Amino acid sequence: MTRVHDMGGRFGDGPVVPEPQGIAQFGADWHPRALAVTLAAGALGQWNIDMSRRARENLAPKDYARFSYYEKWIAALADLLVETGTLSRDDLRVAADDSRHPLSERALKAERVASVLARGSPADRPGGPAPAFSAGQKVRSLRPAANRLIEGGHTRLPAYASGALGTVLRLHGTHVLPDSSAHGLGDAAEPLYAVAFPASELWAQPENPNDEVILDLWQSYLEPA
Amino acid sequence: MPHDHHDHDHPHALLPPDPALRVKALETILTRKGLIDPAALDEILDTYQNRIGPQNGADVVARAWSDPAFRDALLKDATAVVADLGYYGRQGEHIEVVENTPDTHNMVVCTLCSCYPWPLLGIPPGWYKSDAYRARAVREPRRVLADFGVTLPDTTAVRVWDSTAEVRYLVLPMRPAGSDGMDRAALAGLVTRDSMIGTGLPRSPE
């Protein structure tokens, strides 16, 4: 059921290696280029953030595991450009010609970068289903963790937190459902909750009985318990 | 049921396999077609290499340490409060601030990708995006904290926030002992990036 990106709780990855404080440094010269190209291409408006995540997760497991962070970004960007029809396979295969693309009118200009980054893309939506749960209520997350609309599709319920008993901490509002949005099926916005799970509910050997993991989960990921 | 068809024969394989060459190739193709503007790329890079970084989050934390009314408003509606300071934006559209206390230590991860509050902390450090952090932070946060040289008492509960939606979390660390009387700018100097992710503690005043 799972994809390789869903790695929460996995064993065997070794130590976490801290880095100096301050603004994070790029590891290689091409990393910032990959970031900038991805953000600029995203500003063409041909896909949303859920589709971007889906494209990265849909890399072959062996590629996902061996690609560095920005390698995933750039591979997923190429895949998205073709999937959305923005570029053709031939565009990638042969040295590009200089013909202007119909979408070039929408290319992000330097003077608009600050305002586009400052505006962001809010995920909350007015309306939608009424909240079914309230703070303090016990809920159980779905099992298995899977997209219910598309077999093998994108979802944001991690496998480690599926089928677990938790408590609603708060309602965040009504947010775009990634399981729908990532596949171009519309926003399908739903109430989104912060749900607290005791570590003992998730792990066979929790480090401390008082520790908790909190996840943001959509209403359709949850059942009353 | 429809299935995800996008699993085979990935177009990215048509580009050169070396990552630096792959980025260059795609940048060239998009530039020649007029889909991206080199000047805009420079502007994006300047933004994240020089302008947006953890100094923004440190400013928020220092204000919360200095002003109880600000702290209360921040914990209630952080998105509105940080927007007033100019810290709203991409990957920070919905902000929640979670406060450390002697009883509770908060720590933030994104196990499924690498979600991070960009307008407050800038781009994420490499370790935040690493498989090791994503895999381990939810299951063994105290061992991860030990990798950062942080040890918490058993009486302090660890709350790990897995950023599975578009809500971005910022940790409000405890104000260090000995910082009485320090002004806001000096307090901000005590706030490290990692202390706002929850893998570190603020610096102690000299």
Show the helix and strand layout.
The complex is a heterodimer of chains A (225) and B (206).
Chain A lengths: L29 H13 L6 H9 L3 H6 L2 H15 L5 H5 L16 H10 L18 E4 L23 E11 L2 H4 L8 E9 H4 L9 E7 L3 E3 L1
Antiparallel strand pairs in A: 1-2, 1-5, 2-3, 3-4
Chain B lengths: L18 H14 L5 H14 L2 H13 L1 H9 L1 H7 L9 E6 L4 E6 L8 H4 L4 H4 L1 H6 L4 H7 L9 E6 L4 E6 L11 H5 L4 H5 L9
Parallel strand pairs in B: 1-4, 2-3
Helix pairs in contact in B: 3-4, 4-5
Short description:
Chain A is of the alpha+beta class and 225 residues long.
Keywords:
heterodimer, A: alpha+beta, Cyclin A, domain 1, SH3 type barrels, 2 domains, 15% strand, B: alpha/beta, Nitrile Hydratase, Chain A, two-stranded parallel ribbon, 4 strands, 43% helix, 12% strand, metal-binding (chain B), lyase (chain B), Nitrile_hydratase_asu (chain B), CN_Hdrase_a/SCN_Hdrase_g_sf (chain B), nitrile hydratase (chain B)
Q: What is the CATH superfamily label of the largest domain in chain A?
A: Nitrile hydratase, beta subunit
Q: How does the major sheet of chain B shape up?
A: 2 strands, parallel
Strand content of chain B: 5-15%
Number of strands of chain B: 4
Radius of gyration of chain B: 20 Å
How are the strands of the largest sheet of chain A arranged? 4-3-2-1-5
**Terminus-to-terminus distance of chain A:** 24 Å
Write down the CATH topology of the largest domain in chain A: Cyclin A, domain 1
- CATH class of the largest domain in chain B equals Alpha Beta
Kindly give the count of domains of chain A. Answer: 2
Order of helices and strands of chain B: HHHHHEEHHHHEEHH
Catalytic activity (chain B): an aliphatic primary amide = an aliphatic nitrile + H2O
EC number (chain B): 4.2.1.84
Domain Nitrile hydratase alpha/Thiocyanate hydrolase gamma (chain B): 19-199
Family (chain B): Belongs to the nitrile hydratase subunit alpha family.
